[in-house]
Amino acid sequence: xxxxxxxxxxxxxxxxxxxxxxxxxxxxxxxxxxxxxxxxxxxxxxxxxxxxxxxxxxxxxxxxxxxxxxxxxxxxxxxxxxxxxxxxxxxxxxxxxxxxxxxxxxxxxxxxxxxxxxxxxxxxxxxxxxxxxxxxxxxxxxxxxxxxxxxxxxxxxxxxxxxxxxxxxxxxxxxxxxxxxxxxxxxxxxxxxxxxxxxxxxxxxxxxxxxxxxxxxxxxxxxxxxxxxxxxxxxxxxxxxxxxxxxxxxxxxxxxxxxxxxxxxxxxxxxxxxxxxxxxxxxxxxxxxxxxxxxxxxxxxxxxxxxxxxxxxxxxxxxxxxxxxxxxxxxxxxxxxxxxxxxxxxxxxxxxxxxxxxxxxxxxxxxxxxxxxxxxxxxxxxxxxxxxxxxxxxxxxxxxxxxxxxxxxxxxxxxxxxxxxxxxxxxxxxxxxxxxxxxxxxxxxxxxxxxxxxxxxxxxxxxxxxxxxxxxxxxxxxxxxxxxxxxxxxxxxxxxx
Length: 497
Known about the structure:
Elements: H1 2-7, H2 11-50, H3 54-67, H4 72-84, H5 88-101, H6 106-118, H7 122-135, H8 140-164, H9 168-181, H10 186-198, H11 202-215, H12 220-232, H13 236-249, H14 254-278, H15 283-294, H16 299-315, H17 319-332, H18 337-349, H19 353-366, H20 371-387, H21 392-396, H22 404-418, H23 426-447, H24 449-456
């Protein structure tokens, strides 16, 4: 206070002056401590970077930059960590700041030029390489990179010229080299993706567009295009995932939201239909009918719906409906092995074994590795062979999906019709005996679950060739004796059971 009186300062001004002096002293102490801390962070960052612990190294470099925002080396070292982590976009501002603080820092210039070149920014990259060469004319890496930058500039012009001329194949060829030099350039990948789409190769377009979602900030256009491509390919889950990414960036994006509603509705119907199939529920057919109404313009979904309706009708054993549906599906996709397999099963249900064998053989041409098709063909061939001997379903005149009550009813009717006692002449009686035995055999096989399963699998359980220790003609008679051997005077009382 005495010094204030000597200088003539008022009391308030004197107090503020003293406070500033105290703060300056304290700040000097803090800065001294901070310098030590900065050195510690830089050293820790260097060690962790050398050990490959990039996230931990980055954390220390963050602290070093915050502690001293005027040190060009801290920015450069943090940029090195970003590059090691594959985050070139994050490294670029640090390199720029390092160059601003030290314009003659050639290492930062060269590194920034390399990043700009990989991003396809040829003019900016050339500026950096020329700046290095002005100070160091013999710098080999800068010379090589400048040559690449000039080459890239020419290739970019060539690619765009070919594209505007409609020569998409030539554009793709040129862009291969462009992308080799500038793999982080989203524009080149987007242009090549467009060429692939125009040439009818959506899968390659997807491969090019996918990385552009990371190369551009807020690349909603790429997410929408990816969603549309997956949708048209029938990959509705992938389509839904991409369109959701678009809406994460902007939930009010009209194009993305409109497509999202369509994909979500269709995806829900498809998933629901497949769920019904797994549960053996006929509602699956209605769901696939809805799918065709929801998306009538994308052929894939109509073809899929037709194929699955065919499968469902076979599964619920509606033979004629299944044959019609499968035939329609086959017309739409002639090389679809699943449709041929399902129609073959429908023909088996309809006891048309020759056509079943034909369909299975054709299906095998398109899918030779399928065990289902191989086993199905073997079964159809067995059934065809048996049908040329005895087909128990045909003998009783029932469908392959007939239940036990329907089988017994048919059996009773035919047994009454063909009972030998109904016939007078010897020839008629012998014919009736044969039919009567076949009718009784059919009833025995088809009302016994185990024997029916064998017959459905293509094996006649009453065929002597399929029985152990067999022989003798009596094995075709289910009651182990022939009631007609005693002569025409024998009156057999048939028991209905």
